[in-house]
Records
---
Amino acid sequence: MKQFKFNVQPGQVRRMADPINSDRDLFYVHVSLAELPPDLPLDVNPRSQKLGSPVAKKIRRSLEKAPDRFHLLNRGITIIAENAYFDNKTNEFTLVFPEGSSPILSDLIESADNGAAFDLDKDVGLGSLGIVDGGHTYAVIRDFAEHAPEEDQAKLKQGFVRFEVITGISSEQELITDLARARNTSTQVKEQTLDEFLGKFKWIKTALDTAGFPRVVKYEENAPEPVDVRFVIQLMTAFHPLHLERERSPVIAYSQAATCASNFRREADSGAPLGYPTLRPIIPDILNVYGYVRANFATWYRTVGGYSTVKSERPDQDPNLPAKTRGRIGDESKGFSSPSKIDRALFPDLMEDVDYVPDLGFVFPFISSLRALLTIDGATGEAKFSQDPIQYLQANSLKLTRVLLREAIGENYDPQKVGKKRNFWDYIHEKVLYDVALSNR
């Protein structure tokens, strides 16, 4: 067990038995700001503490301007502990946590000026205890104690913070989860942060780590990584097993990011047998296909001669042959931009010499057409590619690029219209289905 002891003034501790369950106890404690113990666990607080956020800055102003009223203006810190007790002889209050609880390391508490987020251990298992609400309050006080000028340190002795300590529920995981959800509502905790807290993203994280992807995906609110897990879910949606049949194109992968996240959450809650987890073995392949298309599409565009050449080509021309004149990409070439932070974070080597990448409205229907290569293993229920999607693209990229550019021309070069047009998603998917049928003859 891990213990944290701190002094409390006489009369500033109240213990109340839970009126429903006698095994639970609630303690209400006024703790001197100067006595606040360092490194309390935050394993049950779903939100990382960002000291540069508006919430944290407001707490700090209250601490600096009115420390004697801090316990009245701030709603305090709620803690779930294995046990707690007060020694009225020594005026010492003790919090007890399991050894598995993860402390905040002092060197991760940075100044409020740089706005850094705590990078808490994301591999802590469910059932860990600690601060469930008030993590920003705790972080601001500790940062003030460590970094404020010496003349301001006296303010800590002028004020108090209110602790609410709950014991006797360490085995009630559902209740702990409900507490985390209910207590973190003043600044809305994003559902994805709660999903990370509940472990719903763990298998995605494992798949990417095993494949050696850079650890650049963020799974919770305020995390510093540049790639949101919701974007990974969008890419997975483009290959979702419920959309493998003809005319069931997953247009929502591009047009409705929030719906993709909601569907992922609903499947995780219901344990749907044919859903996102089916894609577990090919998540790295899906991301690699995305990166390959983003990195190479500008080359394919130039090779087929660009919009003007494709627009004037005869219908009977071999679609896999290069054009006689190379296309150029410039301001007039709509649907292109420089590589994004996501591109460079996920594929630093692949994107090193890339000057232009296609808009996502072009990319999503293009890569989703490759779901025609997917099969579901009847024994394991897992998805696999019947042939390497990168090898397929190496042989057929010019053909699919021409298909996409013709559609873009018809939609006045508008990537959003292309990305939202279900008929086009169905059409380019049919092109790949036809190739698969030919190869199986």
Note: The chain has two domains: 2-189, 235-439.
---
Amino acid sequence: MKPSYQPDSKLDLSFTRTVDVPRSLVWRAWTEPELLKPWFCPLPWKTIDCEIDLRPGGMFRTTMQSPEGKEFPNVGCYLEVLPQTKLVWTNALLPGYRPSVVTETCGSDEASFLFTAMIELADHAQGTRYTATVIHADEAGCRQHADMGFEGGLGHGTRSTRRNAQEGNLIMATQEETEREVVLQREVPFARELVWKAMTIPEHQNRWWGPDGFTNENVTMDFRVGGAWTFDMVGPDGTRYPNHSVFTEITPPSRLVFDHGDGQRVWFVSTITLEGTPSGTLITLRHMFPSKESRDEVVEKYGAIEGGKQHLAKLEAYLRENLS
């Protein structure tokens, strides 16, 4: 039996985007050195050299340069190459599948960890559905990678990737935009119609929505485009947090978008996508903030990333206990 990848939220980082570019151009951006170098490393870092031998067992080598001029060479081995569909490589192996050793990774002298990266592409009505997943050997390596920037985007990693085709070249998204977002994912073993039901029907949603220890009171939901959704989220210490959202897009059972705030201002735009998978549904939460500073405040002061992970874990537990 052919082995398959099994997601592990403690060891993996992942995100999915829809980009308004054909698959052929996204593939070129990943497989042609001169197209990869301009965007592959997050600013103010640079990718100054790249070598690609595009075949299983072939070399994927980059050299990244810090703002201070220090160079970080990275050498990996391609494991799977399916043109315009899937690209898998690892830094745990050198070219020819020879075992590697841990080396410094772009971002810090102390950052060193083994990982395997997977890029998956599929046609989409708006261009290409683009999924990047990086799996790690241990939780420490996963945390290091997240701290280097993966949560914000190559995925909750070298920064998220809205792209535009212009005169045949692929141009990556601005760093400013991708630093304003938080992206979280979880795959659950339930059909997306069931997940959609748990997310959009108040009698279900109110029983799991929010991080551990939080409950919701005074809930009203006008579930239509332009409709308002209001509630008080009550913390473990009794603190009440007024929430006010307005739905801007509803596409059952795959996509939900709303402006989220407190009724006085919008804190962020939230996009929830549900994608069917062979084993269930991939849930992606994407929160886009007005500025990098506002995003960082929510992450650092309120623990938005850990809270988001708890939020999705509670959803899965509710589905299993009440709707399966």
Note: The mean pLDDT is 84.
